[in-house]
C-alpha cells in the first residue's frame, strides 16, 4: 500500500470501500490497467493499516501472494462483499427503467460480490453497464449552443437546424416568451440583360441579411433595338429564370415583396403581353416601373456607400437597355433616405446591350470605342444640370458611384481576382488613373482574351467595352478623382424602401401579427 501523502493510489481491480459506501464508481475500471492512478479514499484507509511500499506503482499480479490478492482478502474480511451487494442492489433499482439496450449491455445479474468482480472487465465497475447516453445528453445542448452563436457560413445555406434561424422559417424568441415568424422581404428585378432576385431579413437599422439570392443573364432585350419587340428565344430564357424565382418564393413565408421590370419591357411593343405570359406560367405578377422610379431605387440601394463627409455625389447605373444618372446634393440635414437629396436625374435610352448591338461588341478598335463615347456624350449634353460643386478638383466632398456590371468588372480586373468575389468588389475605391488604365487594358484585349478573364467571361465579353464607353462619357461630364464601386442596385433599393415603409427598423416597434402577402402581385 502507498503513502497517501505521496500522491499515488494503489492499483486495485475495483472500487474502494469508502467509494462504494458513497455510491460512486471508481475511475480505475475505465482506464487501462497498470496505468497511473489518482489518490482516493482507499489510500488513506490503507495507510491506517500500516501498509506502504512500492506496490502501488506495480501492475496487478495474478500470483496468490500479490498485493492485489491481499487487498481483496482484506476487503472481504471487512465486509466489502456485503457492501458491494448492497450497492449492486441499489444500482439495479436505479436502472430498472433504463433502455433495453442498457439491460442487454449489463448482461445477466449475479447475486454476490465475488461474481460481480469476476465479470467486472465486461460490465464496468460494480455491475454498472458501460453506456454513453449521459455523454450524449451533455454534448447535444453544448453543440446546439455553439451552433446558435456561430456565424452563418454561407448566406444561402438552408441546411442549418431551426435554432440557427438560417432558413427564414424558424421563430424568434422574445423576452415575454412570445414567438413570431421571421420577417422576410423579397425583391425581383427583370432587366434588359439580367434577372435577379433577393430575399432578405432586416437586421440593424438600415441593414438586412440576405437569406437567398438568384441571378441569371437572360438577355431579354436581345434584338429589341432593331425590331422593337421581345424575341421568342429571349422571352423563353426569361420565363425559365422566373420559374426558378417563383420556386424560391413559394418555399418561404414572405411578408412583403415587389417584382419589377425595367427598360426592355418598357420599350417593347409586346412587353405587356410578355408579362401576362409570365403570370400564367409562373404565377408572378411584375410591374413595369418608370425611369424616375428606377433612378430613385438605384440611389436607395447604394445609400450606405455614401460617407458622411460627402456633400455631392453623381450616381449612375449602366443597365442593359438604359442608363440612369442621379445628381445628389447633401446639405447639413441629411435625410435617412438618400433619394430625398436627388436634385437632378436623367435616364439615357442606351445600355450595354443596345450600344453593343448598334456598334458591335466583339471586335472593338480604339476608333470604334471613341465613336460610342461621343454618341453617349451627345445624349448627356441634353441633360440640363448645373455644374456639381467639387467636381473637377481633388476634393473629398465629391465623388462618383457606379452600380452596374461594367464597374464591378473593372474592379475585378483591377484586383486581379481569380474569380469574381462580391465581398471584395462591393465598396472598393478606384482612382481616376486606375479606371483609365483598366479601360485601356480591356480595349487592348481581343474577344477571346476578354472571355477568358474570370471576372468577365463569355457572357459579358461582347458587352463590357460598350459599358466602358458609357462610363467614359460620364467621367468626361463629371470629372472626379475617385469612383466607388457598388455591387448592388435596384433589388437593394426595393428592399430598403419596403423595410423603411414598414418601420421594421424603428426601435420598440412590434411586428407581430403581420401575415404573409400574396406572392403573385407587387405590394406597395
TrEMBL record:
Transmembrane annotation, as ranges: none
EC number in record: 3.6.1.11, 3.6.1.40
Cited CDD domains: ASKHA_NBD_AaPPX-GppA_MtPPX2-like
Keywords: Hydrolase
Top-level taxon of the source organism: Bacteria
InterPro entries in the record: ATPase_NBD, GppA/Ppx_hydrolase, Ppx_GppA_N
Biased composition (Polar residues): 45-54
Molecular function as annotated in GO: exopolyphosphatase activity; guanosine-5'-triphosphate,3'-diphosphate diphosphatase activity
Biased composition (Basic and acidic residues): 153-178
Ppx/GppA phosphatase N-terminal domain location: 205-500
Compositional bias of kind Low complexity: 86-106, 136-152
Composition-biased stretches (Basic residues): 21-35, 68-79, 111-125
UniProt region (Disordered), positions on chain: 1-178
Protein name per its UniProtKB record: Exopolyphosphatase/guanosine-5'-triphosphate, 3'-diphosphate pyrophosphatase
Amino acid at each position: 500500500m502507498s503513502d497517501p501523502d505521496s500522491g499515488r493510489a494503489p492499483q486495485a481491480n475495483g472500487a474502494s470501500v469508502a467509494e462504494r459506501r458513497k455510491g460512486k464508481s471508481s475511475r480505475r475500471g475505465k482506464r487501462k490497467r497498470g496505468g497511473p492512478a489518482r489518490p482516493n479514499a482507499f489510500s488513506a484507509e490503507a495507510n491506517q493499516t500500516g501498509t506502504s511500499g512500492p506496490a502501488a506503482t506495480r501492475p496487478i499480479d495474478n500470483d496468490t501472494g500479490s498485493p492485489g490478492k491481499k487487498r481483496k482478502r482484506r476487503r472481504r474480511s471487512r465486509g466489502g462483499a456485503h457492501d458491494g451487494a448492497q450497492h449492486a442492489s441499489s444500482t439495479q433499482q436505479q436502472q430498472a427503467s433504463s433502455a433495453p439496450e442498457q439491460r442487454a449491455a449489463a448482461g445477466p445479474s449475479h447475486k454476490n460480490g465475488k461474481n460481480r468482480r469476476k465479470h467486472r472487465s465486461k460490465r464496468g465497475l460494480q455491475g454498472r453497464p458501460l453506456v454513453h447516453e449521459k455523454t450524449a445528453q451533455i454534448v447535444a445542448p453544448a453543440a446546439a449552443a455553439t451552433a446558435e452563436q456561430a456565424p452563418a457560413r454561407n448566406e444561402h445555406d438552408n441546411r442549418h437546424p431551426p435554432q440557427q434561424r438560417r432558413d427564414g422559417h424558424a421563430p424568434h424568441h422574445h423576452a415575454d416568451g412570445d414567438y413570431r415568424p421571421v420577417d422576410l422581404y423579397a425583391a425581383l428585378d427583370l432587366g434588359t440583360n439580367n434577372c435577379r432576385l433577393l430575399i432578405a431579413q432586416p437586421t440593424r437599422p438600415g441593414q438586412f441579411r440576405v437569406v437567398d439570392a438568384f441571378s441569371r443573364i437572360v438577355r431579354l432585350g436581345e434584338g429589341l433595338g432593331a425590331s422593337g419587340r421581345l424575341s421568342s428565344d429571349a422571352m423563353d430564357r426569361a420565363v425559365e429564370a422566373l420559374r426558378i424565382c417563383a420556386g424560391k418564393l413559394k418555399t418561404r413565408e414572405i411578408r412583403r415583396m415587389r417584382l419589377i421590370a425595367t427598360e426592355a419591357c418598357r420599350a417593347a411593343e409586346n412587353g405587356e403581353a410578355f408579362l401576362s405570359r409570365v403570370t400564367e406560367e409562373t404565377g408572378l405578377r411584375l410591374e413595369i416601373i418608370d425611369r424616375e422610379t428606377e433612378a430613385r431605387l438605384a440611389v436607395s440601394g447604394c445609400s450606405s456607400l455614401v460617407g458622411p463627409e460627402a456633400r455631392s455625389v453623381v450616381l449612375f447605373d449602366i443597365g442593359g437597355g438604359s442608363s440612369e444618372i442621379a445628381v445628389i446634393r447633401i446639405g447639413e440635414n441629411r435625410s435617412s433616405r438618400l433619394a430625398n437629396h436627388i436634385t437632378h436625374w436623367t435616364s439615357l435610352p442606351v445600355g450595354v446591350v443596345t450600344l453593343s448591338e448598334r456598334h458591335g461588341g466583339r471586335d472593338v478598335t480604339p476608333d470604334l470605342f471613341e465613336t460610342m463615347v461621343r454618341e453617349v456624350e451627345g445624349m448627356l449634353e441634353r441633360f440640363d444640370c448645373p455644374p456639381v460643386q467639387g467636381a473637377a478638383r481633388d476634393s473629398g466632398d465629391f465623388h462618383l458611384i457606379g452600380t452596374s456590371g461594367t464597374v464591378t468588372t473593372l474592379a475585378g480586373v483591377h484586383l486581379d481576382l481569380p474569380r469574381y468575389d462580391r465581398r471584395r468588389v462591393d465598396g472598393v475605391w478606384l482612382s481616376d488613373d486606375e479606371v483609365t488604365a483598366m479601360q485601356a487594358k480591356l480595349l487592348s484585349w481581343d474577344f477571346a482574351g476578354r472571355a477568358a478573364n474570370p471576372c468577365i467571361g463569355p457572357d459579358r465579353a461582347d458587352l463590357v467595352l460598350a459599358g466602358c464607353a458609357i462610363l467614359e462619357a460620364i467621367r468626361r461630364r463629371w470629372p472626379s478623382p475617385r469612383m466607388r464601386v457598388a455591387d448592388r442596385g435596384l433589388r437593394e433599393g426595393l428592399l430598403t424602401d419596403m423595410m423603411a415603409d414598414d418601420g421594421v427598423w424603428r426601435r420598440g416597434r412590434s411586428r407581430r401579427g403581420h401575415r404573409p402577402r400574396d406572392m403573385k402581385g407587387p405590394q406597395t
